[in-house]
Amino acid sequence: MMKHNDFKIRIIVIFLILLGLSRAKTKNAGLAMLLCTLPGGGQFYTERFLTGIIIAGGEIGLGWFAYKYHQEKDYEKRNSFLWWELFLFGYSLADAYVGAKMYGFNIEADVDRVSLNFHLKW
Fold first, then answer.
1. 40: which of 21, 68, 87, 89 is 20 to 30 A away, CA to CA?
2. What is this structure's pTM?
3. Alpha-carbon gap, residue 10 to 7, rounded angstroms
4. What pLDDT sits at residue 120?
């Protein structure tokens, strides 16, 4: 059985690895999806920290409730939480993929260069 200090060290190491991977100028979509095996890992990799915290909290919370209802032998509620967990995991995968593909994309438009012209011919 893993000691509590060993668990803390592993979490810190995983966090440092994610932080090191997120320093790259471009993001690999495959790696972002692979990191989704950790709750919020793909979002942290693409430097979308708030989304990562929300997804990680949701996945951990749903997993905890599924475990709780499994212990109480309420399999209908457990299965419901597991389906929601699966949906959130799928969303996390898609979000990490899009986040990696769109990383570094500047969405601001240069308003001075945008113009609209109408030409009427009679």
1. 68
2. 0.68
3. 5
4. 74
Residue with tokens 């997120």: 22
Q: In sequence order, what DSSP letters do the residues of 34-80 get, joined into one string?
A: HGGGSTTHHHHHTT-HHHHHHHHHHHHHHHHHHHHHHHTT-HHHHHH
Per run of 10 residues, the mean pLDDT along the chain (length 122 residues) is 68 68 69 84 88 95 96 96 96 92 70 66 74
Q: How far is CA 110 from CA 18, 23, 63, 113, 116, in A?
A: 34, 27, 45, 6, 14
Residue linked to tokens 């499994």 = 70
The owner of tokens 């995968």 is 93
Cβ atoms 89, 36 nearer than 8 A: yes
